[in-house]
């Protein structure tokens, strides 16, 4: 308990007795009776040979149960194991290399490190750090090419994470870093640690080829990343059809089925090769394991096919479409549960272009806006 607050009353012996109160605050000052604590108690770290001087090897973590003036800042000292001054330890507890290590010279170092707190008198603790020197990288990183499809309303892309690069390295202790060529940083960013690709707001319609690379510190490997941006027209929303799939997650659909189903769907509904199929959005159907895919077909002349025409085409080709993935229903209108006849059901579709859904797999990422279907009875 760091303090007490007492209310003290004094009362005299007169008639009637009179009294007065005062508040007495009692602060308990801290005595430096706790030593710093290392977490964990001892450390193991590795460093690859031929890493440059100043390479970070380890971050020491120290806490102290005493109050702040008896705890940090801590003073770190290497007591033993650093007689040749191969290591340095900065005031923040970061252990760094002071030489270029060679695996053939020595494979292991054991350091005894002391942490001293700021109290009076000072308290100290010790930990042991085992540093292993391993051979430098002999394998190049490998990365999977990534293709990203972004669907957005006209000039209304808010930006965000649009995918993630998947890279591996057979060298167990290699740390991979990702970089993007500087001239493309006005539109995209790549997280250097985990490979996530971030698009900034306001992307224009078109195709973007990103110059991304992954490095293990010795080898640098380019990665093919292509971003396709498609801007929706308001007229598309009035001519959409929804295909509902059975028991498939959005990620499985994107990674396993989207390319093949898109090709099969084109063959089923396009009247001319010059017509364009637009997948507007995919999202899980509420309260089920089903998945809705929203699409429209644009004629070569510029207009859009009516939903009734597309549904007729889909009905005729349904058996062929289901060779790859099971279809639960084809929806133009969704009046189930409403007490009205089909011809008296009015449906409106709205797109929330600022609520993007990103379905990312190792090879394909699909980014699309969330959509809402509203129906009402007109009877």
TrEMBL record:
Locate the coiled-coil region(s) and give their ranges. Answer: none
GO terms assigned for molecular function: calcium ion binding
UniProt entry tagged with the keyword Translocase: no
InterPro entries, sorted: Cadherin-domain_protein (IPR050971), Cadherin-like_dom (IPR002126), Cadherin-like_sf (IPR015919), Cadherin_CS (IPR020894)
Q: Which PROSITE patterns match?
A: CADHERIN_1, CADHERIN_2
UniProt keyword annotations, A-Z: Calcium, Cell adhesion, Membrane, Repeat, Transmembrane, Transmembrane helix
| One Pfam family matching this protein | Cadherin
Span of domain Cadherin: 4-38, 39-143, 154-245
Compartments annotated for it: namely: Membrane
Q: What does UniProt give as GO cellular component?
A: cell-cell junction; plasma membrane
Report the record's Gene Ontology biological process terms.
homophilic cell adhesion via plasma membrane adhesion molecules
Name of the protein: FAT3 protein
Organism from which the protein derives: Leptocoma aspasia
């Amino acid at each position: 308990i760091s303090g007490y607050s007492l209310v003290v009353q004094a009362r005299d012996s007169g008639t009637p007795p009179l009294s007065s109160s005062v508040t007495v605050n009692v602060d308990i000052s801290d005595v430096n009776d706790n030593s710093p604590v290392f977490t964990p108690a001892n450390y193991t770290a590795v460093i690859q040979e031929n890493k440059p001087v100043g390479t970070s090897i380890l971050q020491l973590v120290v806490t102290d149960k005493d109050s702040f003036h008896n705890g940090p800042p801590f003073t770190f000292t290497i007591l033993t194991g650093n007689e040749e001054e191969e290591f340095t330890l900065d005031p923040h507890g970061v252990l760094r290399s002071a030489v270029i290590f060679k695996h053939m010279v020595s494979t292991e170092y054991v350091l005894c490190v002391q942490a001293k707190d700021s109290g009076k008198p000072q308290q100290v603790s010790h930990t042991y750090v085992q540093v292993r020197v391993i051979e430098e990288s002999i394998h190049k990183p490998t990365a999977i090419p990534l293709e990203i499809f972004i669907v957005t309303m006209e000039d209304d892309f808010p930006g965000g994470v649009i995918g993630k690069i998947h890279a591996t390295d057979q060298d167990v202790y290699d740390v991979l870093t990702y970089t993007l060529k500087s001239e493309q940083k006005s539109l995209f960013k790549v997280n250097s640690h985990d490979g996530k690709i971030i698009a900034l707001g306001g992307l224009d319609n078109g195709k973007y080829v990103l110059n991304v690379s992954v490095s293990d510190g010795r080898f640098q490997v380019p990665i093919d990343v292509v971003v396709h941006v498609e801007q929706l027209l308001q007229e598309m929303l009035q001519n959409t059809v929804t295909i509902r799939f059975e028991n498939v997650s959005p990620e499985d659909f994107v990674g396993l089925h989207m390319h093949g189903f898109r090709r099969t769907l084109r063959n089923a509904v396009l009247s001319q090769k010059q017509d364009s199929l637009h997948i507007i959005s995919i999202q899980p159907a509420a309260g089920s394991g089903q998945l809705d895919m929203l699409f429209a077909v644009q004629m070569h002349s510029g207009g859009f096919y009516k939903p009734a025409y597309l549904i007729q085409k889909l009905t005729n080709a349904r058996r062929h479409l289901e060779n790859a993935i099971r279809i639960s229903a084809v929806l133009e209108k969704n009046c189930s549960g409403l007490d009205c006849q089909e011809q008296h059901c009015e449906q409106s579709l709205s797109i929330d272009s600022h609520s993007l859904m990103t379905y990312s797999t190792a090879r394909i990422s699909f980014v699309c806006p969330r959509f809402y279907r509203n129906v009402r009875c007109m009877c």
